[in-house]
Backbone:
């Protein structure tokens, strides 16, 4: 088995499936895990901090990093909005003897998995239904009608990829889903 420095855990799901809540739970449970901070070109939300939630960068800066091969993977997750995992971020966490925990979209997750087939664990969080997903996104209050529809359309598409991942966790009950994720990760890190 690889040492903790070389391992990667990828949590992926359609947006609104609860992966952020599960990610936070896991980060509290396992001190050897660390959130992999992605680079993103979207605007920061009011509660978000640069360098903690994301590295918020300009489109020009993002394109420069693509050209210089600085990403493990990157995607235009939403129209005109780019997100990517920086090689330097994974290295920073490994140097810290921590295992990076990536909260990324489905296509990005498949790319990371392909690059680290032996040392990655990929977990797909499945929402109970598209209606429930819509309800969760609405209650989060961060979406306009347009972005809500885009996220719901994308979610339906992403659900079709669930069997590409090492583990699938149905999030019909958050504490139960967290406990399941915890057990899977405990085994992976042992
Ligand atoms: P949000 O804008 O709500 O923070 O995130 C939108 C989506 O982008 C989420 O599904 C999130 O997991 C995904 N995402 C965040 N960082 C990355 C990244 O580095 N790469 C990819 N491919 N997706 C990401």
Residues:
């Amino acid at each position: 088995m690889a040492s903790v420095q070389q391992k990667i855990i990828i949590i992926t799901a359609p947006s609104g499936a609860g992966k952020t809540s599960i990610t936070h739970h896991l980060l509290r449970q396992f001190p050897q895990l660390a959130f992999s901070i992605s680079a993103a070109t979207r605007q920061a939300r009011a509660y978000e901090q640069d360098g903690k939630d994301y590295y918020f960068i300009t489109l020009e800066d993002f394109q420069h990093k693509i050209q210089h091969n600085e990403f493990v993977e990157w995607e235009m997750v939403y129209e005109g909005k780019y997100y990517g995992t920086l090689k330097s971020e994974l290295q920073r966490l490994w140097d810290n003897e921590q295992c990076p925990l990536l909260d990324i979209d489905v296509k990005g997750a498949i790319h990371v998995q392909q690059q680290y087939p032996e040392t990655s664990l990929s977990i797909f969080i499945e929402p109970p239904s598209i209606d429930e997903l819509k309800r969760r996104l609405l209650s989060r209050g961060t979406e306009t009608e347009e972005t809500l529809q885009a996220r719901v359309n994308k979610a339906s598409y992403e659900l079709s990829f669930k069997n590409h991942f090492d583990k699938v966790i149905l999030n019909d009950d958050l504490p139960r889903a967290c406990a399941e994720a915890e057990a899977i990760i405990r085994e992976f890190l042992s």
